[in-house]
Write a structure and sequence with these properties.
ATP hydrolysis activity; P-loop_NTPase; 15 strands; single chain; alpha/beta; Rossmann fold; 13 helices; 3 domains; Beta-Lactamase
Length: about 425
C-alpha cells in the first residue's frame, strides 16, 4: 500500500524543484530540457527527496521506508508528475478496457472478459480528482485545455493513447470516463485473429483501402470503430502522406514512423476564456486539403465538419477514412444528413444525399455484444458492409455483407467495383 498523502506532498516538492530548475535554465540562457531529459531529472529529484525523507524519519526516531516502499513511493510520485496519478495501475493493466469515475470514490472498471468491478478510490477528494484532470489537461494534447467552472467539459488523449472525457458542475460530482486503447499498433491480421472480422472481410477491406475507396466506419460508442480505423490505416503504404483530423488526438498514427513516416496530426483547438482562438474541425479539414495529403483521415465525425469532409472526398482525395456513431449501416445516411442540416451550409437532405453518393464508397458497421453462450464474454465484430451505388432523391445502396449465423459479416450481394478490388488482391467467396 502506498501512502498517498506522502505521494501528494513529495510530488509538490519535486514539482517545485523542477520548476525552479526550469527558471534557472531560462535565466542562464540554456535550452529548455526535452521531455525525456525532464523525466530523467525528475527521477534524480525524486531520489533526492526520498533520501531526505528517510534521514528525517531516522532523526525523529522513526523507521524509514523500506526499499520496496521507497520504490513504490518513487513510482507513485513519477506517475503523479508525468502520468495519471492513482489511475496509473489501471492504465498499466492490459485487461482493463474502460474506467468510469462518478466522483473520486465511485470507480467502475470494465475488463476485456466482460466483467465490471468496483475499484478503490482514485483520489482523496473530488477536488483532488479535478486537480488531477486539470494537470492532465494542461500537459496532454497540442495545447493546454481548461477544465474549470467556465469550461466544465473536457476531452483529451492520455499519454498511453486512452481517451478521457470529463465533466464537472453539470453533474453533482465530477465524472470521468476513460476508454482504453488496448490495441495501439493493430493490423487486420490481429482483428481476424480475435474474431472482429473474418478472413474474407479482412481481404475485402484491405483491397478497398488499396483501391483508394472512401470508407465510413459506423457503430455505437465503444464498439471498436477507432481500432478498426487504425488497422485500416495500417494497410496504407508508407509512401503516402496522411493528414489526420481529430477533436482530441487519439489515432496516434504518427507514433509508428516505420508504418507512416509522413503524418501530420491536426487537433481541434477550443476557445480561450475570452472566447477567442478556436479552430474548429471543419476549419482543420479545409486546412488539411492545402497540406498536400495523399489521404485525409477524420477520427470521428460529430458535427458540422461533415459537409467539408464529404466535399474533400469528392475533390480527388480518394481513400479517406472516418468514423461516425450510428445504430446500423443504413442509419449512417440519415445521421450524416442530420449533421449537414446543423452545418453553416444548411444543406437540405436531398443535396446531402447527392453529396454522400459522390463521396462515400462503403459503410462498414461494427458492433459489440455480450456472448452469453461463452460466459458473457464481450465480442466486437463487423456485421455489415454497405456499398453506396448512387442517388435517386435518396442514397441508393446495397448490403454486400450481411450478418451471418454467428453475427459476423458474410457475403450477400455482388460489388459493383469488384474488378478494382480484384486488381488489389481480393477474390470473392460466397456469391
Amino acid at each position: 500500500m502506498i501512502d498517498h498523502s506522502l505521494v501528494k506532498r513529495f510530488r509538490q516538492e519535486v514539482g517545485d524543484r523542477l520548476a525552479h530548475q526550469r527558471r534557472l535554465d531560462q535565466a542562464n540562457g540554456l535550452p529548455a530540457m526535452t521531455g525525456e531529459d525532464e523525466r530523467q531529472f525528475a527521477r534524480a529529484l525524486i531520489s533526492q527527496v526520498l533520501e531526505e525523507h528517510a534521514r528525517s524519519e531516522i532523526g525523529l526516531g522513526r523507521t524509514p521506508p523500506t526499499v520496496e516502499e521507497e520504490e513504490a513511493l518513487a513510482a507513485g510520485i513519477h506517475a503523479a508528475l508525468f502520468g495519471v496519478g492513482r489511475l496509473q495501475p489501471l492504465l498499466d493493466d492490459p485487461e482493463v478496457e474502460n474506467i468510469d469515475i462518478n466522483g473520486c470514490d465511485k470507480v467502475f472498471v470494465s475488463y476485456a472478459d466482460g466483467q465490471e468491478l468496483m475499484h478503490d478510490p482514485v483520489a482523496e477528494s473530488d477536488d483532488e480528482l479535478i486537480e488531477l484532470i486539470q494537470i492532465l489537461a494542461a500537459y496532454s494534447g497540442l495545447s493546454s485545455r481548461p477544465f474549470d467552472t467556465a469550461n466544465p467539459q473536457l476531452d483529451l488523449r492520455l499519454p498511453d493513447g486512452s481517451r478521457l472525457s470529463a465533466v464537472m458542475d453539470v453533474t453533482v460530482r465530477p465524472a470521468v470516463s476513460i476508454r482504453r486503447a488496448r490495441l495501439g499498433k493493430v493490423f487486420m491480421s490481429d482483428l481476424v485473429g480475435n474474431g472482429t472480422i473474418s478472413p474474407d472481410v479482412g481481404r475485402f477491406l484491405s483491397a478497398a483501402v488499396a483501391a483508394r475507396k472512401n470508407l465510413m466506419i459506423a457503430g455505437s460508442t465503444n464498439a471498436g470503430k477507432t481500432t478498426l480505423l487504425r488497422a485500416l490505416a495500417n494497410e496504407i503504404p508508407p509512401s503516402e502522406r496522411l493528414i489526420t483530423v481529430e477533436r482530441a488526438l487519439e489515432l496516434g498514427l504518427d507514433q509508428f514512423p516505420e508504418l507512416h513516416p509522413n503524418v501530420v496530426a491536426f487537433e481541434q483547438r477550443l476557445p480561450n476564456s475570452e472566447g477567442q482562438g478556436e479552430i474548429s474541425m471543419a476549419e482543420l479539414v479545409r486546412r488539411s486539403l492545402r497540406m498536400n495529403p495523399s489521404r485525409v483521415i477524420v477520427g470521428e465525425v460529430l458535427g458540422d465538419e461533415i459537409v467539408t469532409m464529404l466535399n474533400a472526398m469528392t475533390q480527388g482525395n480518394d481513400g479517406s477514412l472516418s468514423t461516425i456513431h450510428a445504430n446500423s449501416s443504413m442509419e449512417v445516411f440519415n445521421r450524416i444528413a442530420t449533421y449537414a442540416l446543423q452545418a453553416s451550409e444548411r444543406l437540405p437532405i436531398d443535396a446531402t444525399h447527392m453529396l454522400i453518393a459522390g463521396a462515400i464508397d462503403f459503410v462498414v458497421f461494427i458492433e459489440k455484444r455480450n456472448d452469453y453462450h461463452r460466459g458473457g464474454t464481450l465480442r466486437r465484430y463487423v456485421s455489415s458492409i454497405r456499398e453506396v451505388n448512387g442517388c435517386d432523391g435518396r442514397v441508393l445502396s446495397s448490403e454486400v455483407f450481411v450478418p451471418g449465423p454467428g453475427g459476423g459479416a458474410v457475403p450477400h450481394a455482388p460489388v459493383s467495383c469488384l474488378d478494382e478490388l480484384m486488381a488489389h488482391g481480393y477474390t470473392p467467396g460466397g456469391w
